[in-house]
Amino acid sequence: MARSRTAAPRRVMSRTDHWTIDARDWFSVGGGEAGNIAVDPRNQNILYVGDAGGSLVRFDRRTGQAQNITPWPVPGEFGAATRKYRYPWTAPLAWSPVEPGALYFASQVLFKTLDGGLTWKEISPDLTGDTRKDRKMVADRITTENAREQGFGVIYSVAPSPLKAGLLWVGSDTGLLHVTQDDGRTWQNVTPQGLPDWSRVTCIEASHFDAGSAYATVDRHRMEDYHPYLYRTRDYGKSWTLLVDGLSEPAYLNAVREDPAHKGLLYAATELGVTVSFDDGAHWQPLQLNLPTVSVRDLVVHGDDLVIATHGRGFWILDNMTPLRQVDEECGSHPVQAGDGHSHQSGRVHGDTHSGG
Fold this sequence. Notes:
- Mean pLDDT is 86; it is low at 1-7, 338-342 and 346-357.
- With 357 residues, the chain is mainly beta.
- The chain folds into 2 domains: 1-75, no CATH class; 85-133 and 140-345, Methylamine Dehydrogenase, Chain H.
- The chain contains 1 helix and 26 strands.
- The relative contact order is 0.11.
C-alpha cells in the first residue's frame, strides 16, 4: 500500500545501488492523495490504483496509460449517505492468492472482477448493517446511535483466503464481520460476541495454514476507547478468542499478519510500534528494536524480511527474520533481544510515501 501527500501514489524502490533513495527511484502510478495499490501478480507492469472516494484506475507502466475502472461513476461530493456506493478514504483492494485474475474491491458491498476491472459484479449485500429500504435520510441530525440507519458505514477490510478459492473474510467500520465460503453466494455474520457498534475492523488476516482460521484487529479510538482488540477464530468465525495478553492501552491495533513460513508466529501493527507473538497470539511482546515510537499502519512479510509502513510516511524493514522463526513457544515467553535482528529505515522519499491514513 502507498499514499502520496502530493499529486498521486507512487511506486518506489526499497533499496538501490547508489547509496540513497531519491526521485530517480520512484514514479507516479496515478490516483490521488490516498489509495491502495494492487500489483497484478501475473504482470508486474500492471497496477490497480485507488483514490479517495472510491475512484479506481488501471495503470500500465509500459505505455503510461491509465484507465478509469471505477465500478460506478464517482460524484464530486464525499460522504453523502444517499450515494449508490460509499467508500472509506482508502477502499479495500485485494487479489485472490489462489484464483488467478480475481480482484476484489469494496464499498458497502463487495465487488469482484475477472477481466481487469472492465466489468464488476456485486457478490454481497450491504455488509455494514444498513437496512434502509430507500436512500433517503431518516433524520435531520446524524448521531452515533442513528448513523448506521442513515446510511453511513463502509467495508473497511477484505481478506481472501490463501488456501481456498471463494473463501473471503470481510470487516466493516460499523463493527461487523462476515464470511463466505462460496465466493459470495451465501454470507454468514460472524461478528465476535459483544463487539459494540462502530468498532472499526482495521484488518483481517486469513490463515496460511488452516482455512477455518483467521485473525482480526479492531480499533475503537473514535469512540474514545484506546484498548487493543485482537481476535482469533479456528472454526470459520463461529467462535472468537480475544488475544491481548501483553498488549495495553493506548496501543490500539491497526493490523495483524501471520508469518507464512512459520505457524503460530504473528506480527501486529499498533499505534505505538510493532509487537510479536510466538504462540498464535496467546502472548505478545514488543518487537521495537531501534524502531522509534510511531503509529504503524500496516506490515507485510516479504520473504525473510518484515516490512512496515508508518503514519510518519516511512517504510522500515527488519532484515532476515530467521532468528524469530527459530524461537519456539516456550522461549517466546521471554523478551526478544535487540541483537536478534537489524531494522533500518528504507523508504522515506522526501516525506511522500507512507501507509494507510
